[in-house]
Amino acid sequence: MYIRIWYEVGASGQESTKRTTREGQTPPQKPSDGWGKAAEIPDLSGKTREEADVILRNAGLKATTNNPSTTPGGYTKYTFDDGSYIWIGPDGEIDRLPKQTKETRGWRIDPTTGDLVSPHTFPPERLK
């Protein structure tokens, strides 16, 4: 089961905890323009980090000075001009996220089908 917990600070300044689960939920309807470029990129399994970097940079990254960006922990985020993005972890595991809306928050893109799925319910996509 996937459980997501996050914190929000309301207008009163009070922090509240929200909790959602994806078990048993149906993904939102696919919009006419799709889930974004992150869903259109072919499966990157077995590619080197350098090969994946070239493919992702050629796919239409959002034009910013720090794109892709890398966290101190070694996670690299590629943000596309349509709002979808791909994370590559230090171990080479890849997470694809659709264009972010209230309905798509928390869902992932299955690299083999391009459909939205719950996290950790499909075989991981991993670099060499």
Alpha-carbon distance between the termini?
28 Å
Number of helices: 2
Number of domains: 1
What is the percent of helical residues?
Answer: 10-25%
The main β sheet shows up as: 5 strands, antiparallel
What does this structure look like?
By secondary structure, this protein is mainly beta. Helices cover 10% and strands 27% of the residues. It has one domain (28-126). The protein is built from two helices and nine strands, in the order E-E-H-H-E-E-E-E-E-E-E. It has a five-stranded antiparallel β-sheet with strand order 3-4-5-6-9. A two-stranded antiparallel sheet has the order 1-2. Residues 1-10 and 15-21 have low confidence and may be disordered.
Describe how the helices and strands are arranged.
Layout: E1 3-9, E2 15-21, H1 37-40, H2 49-57, E3 69-70, E4 76-79, E5 85-88, E6 93-97, E7 108-109, E8 116-117, E9 125-126
